[in-house]
Write a structure and sequence with these properties.
- It contains eight helices and six strands; from the N terminus they run βαβαβαβαβαααβα.
- It is of the alpha/beta class and about 230 residues long.
- Strand 2, helix 2 and strand 3 form a beta-alpha-beta unit.
- It is elongated, with a radius of gyration of 19 Å.
């Protein structure tokens, strides 16, 4: 299990308390994200005394790993031992002006202490390969884990690009548009993700991350076919 911690909706103290609880439970692997805008807001706004950017969340966890807590007078603080993951965007974050700038933001998170990167979903492996290449060229050396999301309903052809600012390959779009119901869409999505997974494994990725959106039957089919 890899808990996701976000900036939105939490103060620094609440974040620290959540991290202490995770340490108590023996969970030492976390993914740190800024999070989305609150419903109805056009721009992201942090909570009072909260973090504006994911890099600030990374820095807070790094301090905890060093035994530095918000309460400076704490007696005998026990350092945490979190492995820190952050998000990366092969097609750039929707708020970044360009991919080169977005890569510099990503490198800053890694330089601040992130141990690995999990990418936003993508449907064209060429975008991951180019992203990985560009990351290495600017000195990012941590593992870059590809994030995959099999399509499951036809409406995702419009909702996913609009929500996540990603492209869906024309070949996949044409196959989905031929489907007469979402059961067929789900099967096409599984088959596409299987081929994506096999190619990525052949490329040598460290591991695959699947976005389930709360439903895992299609992920199980993919895993059985791939592994």
């Amino acid at each position: 299990m890899v808990p996701h911690l976000i900036c939105g909706g939490f103060s620094q103290e609440e974040t620290e308390n959540a991290l202490i609880d995770l340490q108590f439970l023996g969970i030492d692997n976390i993914l740190l994200l800024r999070g989305d805008n609150m419903r109805g807001e056009k721009q992201f706004k942090p909570q009072p005394d909260g973090h504006m950017y994911a890099i600030d969340l990374v820095k807070q966890v790094v301090k905890l790993n060093q035994g530095i807590f918000l309460e400076e007078d704490m007696l005998n603080p026990v350092p945490t031992n979190f492995c820190i993951g952050v998000g990366g965007y092969p097609e750039k974050h929707m708020e970044s002006p360009n991919l080169a700038t977005d890569l510099q933001y990503l490198k800053a998170k890694v330089d601040a202490g992130a141990d690995y990167i999990v990418t936003q979903m993508f449907f064209d492996n060429a975008k991951y390969f180019e992203f990985e290449k560009l990351c290495r060229e600017i000195g990012i050396t941590v593992p870059i884990i590809p994030g995959l999301k099999p399509l499951s309903v036809k409406s995702q052809l419009s909702t996913l690009p609009r929500t996540f600012s990603i492209d869906i390959p024309e070949e996949l779009v044409l196959e989905i548009e031929k489907c007469t119901d979402n059961q067929q869409v789900r099967q096409v999505g599984v088959e596409w993700a299987i081929e994506q997974s096999k190619e990525l494994i052949k490329f040598g990725v460290p591991v695959l991350h699947f976005y389930t959106m709360g439903k895992s039957d299609n992920i199980c089919k993919i895993a059985k076919a791939v592994f």
